[in-house]
């Protein structure tokens, strides 16, 4: 019995020292929950509004060439890297990257800041989706006519099919969108960002409800999130396939789809197309936001992350293409109804799903069914992404300040509540009458500086061996980063150009995200003695030495234990208790 207890204690002690993870850290109940949560995070609103428009503007079917190249060359390897770091360390991005490379612990903190800033305005989109969802339950959709108090005569017309000149003049009024660009008052905006206007109280209520839903879904950690994603990650596909079946039967749908997929091969020689493809891959999968590291940290240590990486990345790309067929088949139908070119209706950003597509739905048969289903689908897509964004901040606080925070808040549920409350308060500026300008500014500058190159260069080694040649990944990412800087354009909203002070604020937002990278490196160098190489790699070497020591010791103990079981019945009682061979083995192994 004494030997068995010693073996159990020794194994647990060494395992805890090597992996340095808390034994009580929760795990996903099933592997499927992790996959669904990861797919739900990767597949977001950008798959519905950004990818289809980007594909159409970047050469149609030809855009798939740079997109797939960037997916397999950069996206999949980097996603595998993030899964590996999270699962191996069982920690959030800050502490996980600090273990892999102490010099770059600031990268982890930067990802936390970016994710939380992103969550503050991403939930505004969920508020908009809720507002539209509730407004679509009436007998008639509010945006079907111009007989509303919020419509402006110059921006609204009920339209007359075939009257191209009349409708064309309306399209030119507001970003080429059809009829009422101030549809349902949702985009009722002031003249610029310096005119905030008053609060939109109905949107404030919708934003509050969105944060309440997020809290109720994640307040129990991965145990509650894992159950919610069974519905929120699967239901959007049901709606997308239903909409696709419905849309392809509409007149004009074929023209819209051809407009979406027809290749323009000359576009492949434009650097901007490759930059857009890389940006879409990184932003869609969620590379560099820390969310994938956080979710993988709740995996079991022996989970097959290569399989999960392929499932998540390929499902995300498939969803983007599926959404493109859904969106452009509907736009083709709308162009047919109003006798307009497709490119006069197609638009980018939230306007595609909150202005153009609602009007498309209002002209469809049985619009009372399709409209609420569409906005509920948007809500589900956004919720899955928001779960992971908020979880990054919660995981960081628990890993770094868990005991102190829990002594003050008593329960982990209150910590999640505190994070949600802060996120709600920071989202209020986005729901003023000028909030759409704030939203666009935040969206443009939050991730203007990529963190991918920093993550690549510090993760060539894990477990003491090369698991992947990240140099091959790092070089094209660096080229893309340089091209993005060279081709930088200031933020704008339609024809509106932001004033200089707003540009300064935007760059300040970017600086808040990335300043932690050099600060973390400086702090690590200041607190540790030795050369720069020793500071950057010493922790990894130390970790690998502990792993090797543990493996050797456990192997020798296992052999000794089996030998002990085999000979114990033939030994005298005294020799069973005091065996010099075992004593020497324990001493050398320890």
From TrEMBL:
The keyword Disulfide bond applies. The chain crosses the membrane at residues 32-51, 63-85, 106-134, 203-221, 228-245, 273-298, 310-335, 414-431, 437-456, 463-486, 498-519. SUPFAM superfamilies: SNF-like. Keywords: Disulfide bond, Membrane, Metal-binding, Sodium, Symport, Transmembrane, Transmembrane helix, Transport. InterPro entries: Na/ntran_symport (IPR000175), SNS_sf (IPR037272). GO terms for biological process: amino acid import across plasma membrane. Na(+) binds at residues 40, 42-43, 47, 284, 316, 381, 384-385. It is a multi-pass membrane protein. The keyword Transmembrane helix applies. One of its GO terms (molecular function) is amino acid:sodium symporter activity. It is found in: Membrane. GO terms for cellular component: plasma membrane. It comes from the Eukaryota. Disulfide bonds join 146-156. PANTHER family: SODIUM/CHLORIDE DEPENDENT TRANSPORTER, TRANSPORTER. Belongs to the sodium:neurotransmitter symporter (SNF) (TC 2.A.22) family. This is Transporter. It comes from Myripristis murdjan. The gene is si:ch211-225b11.1.
